[in-house]
Amino acid sequence: MDVASRLAGKVAIVTGAGQGIGAAIAGCFASEGARVVVADINPATGSAMAAKLAARGAETVFVETDVTDEASVAAMYDAARAAFGAPNVLVNNAGVNVFRKPLDATDEDWTRCMSVDLDGVWRCTRAVLPAMIEAGQGAIVNIASTHAFQIIPGCFPYPVAKHAVVGLTRALGIEYAARGVRVNAIAPGYIETPIAVDYWNTFPDPEAERRRASALHPPKRIGRPEEVGWTAVFLASDEAPFINAATIVIDGGRSALYHD
């Protein structure tokens, strides 16, 4: 693998890195010289992703991680530190879609969504922050969503969690800016992930549904996971030292499009 150096010397934890956007982020990080901790709840996809990166020459390790469990997150951090030293980059990508009508959502739906999509972000952040503060440098990238800015009926409580992730990003970014820790977020829109493909496959004509989704966007296509990955590389790198408490939207301009 021809390894570039934008992230040379960085130790990066990427949660939910077994597939989709997380896998793309892990791959982009490895390509730029980071040592990557693939943290995923699924041992099959997580270990396969780590093996794929290792086959390309990357320094990587897989750690089975449940972001809803404090002990699991602590064990993940300890494993990362034992393998590569204290992480100075964290990407909080692990997430779960919980889409309901508000009054149809159960307490279990609410708890599941918040435990992964919001509390999981804070658990992992809380694990890495002390060492980042002590070192006087670190970058945290939270994967939010365009659901944090635009509401689609029937998707409750997912947008509530993603609004909160943006708030958490801003609060922590301000709190620790003077200590050398930057906290930013990325808000992807419609991205071609396995979840999206599985959704299209529920239709009688999956390809027609893909075309319909593409037509909603100004570029007449949807996003690719690696387009989120390279943005995460930029935010994690030394190229973005004055970007903090910000959220970058990656949706091809759809959120700026006037709808009549």
Give an account of the 3D structure:
This protein is an alpha/beta fold. It has a single domain (11-191, 224-251), classed as NAD(P)-binding Rossmann-like Domain (Rossmann fold, 3-Layer(aba) Sandwich), CATH 3.40.50.720. It is 45% helix and 16% strand. It has a 7-stranded parallel β-sheet with strand order 3-2-1-4-6-8-9, sandwiched between helices. A two-stranded antiparallel sheet has the order 5-7. Helix 2 (43-55) links the parallel strand 2 and strand 3. Helix 1 crosses helix 8, helix 3 (70-84) runs parallel beside helix 4 and helix 4 (107-135) runs parallel beside helix 5 (158-176). The longest helix has 29 residues, at 107-135. The radius of gyration is 18 Å and the shape is globular. It starts with 10 loop residues before the first strand and ends in a 10-residue tail after the last strand. The mean pLDDT is 96.
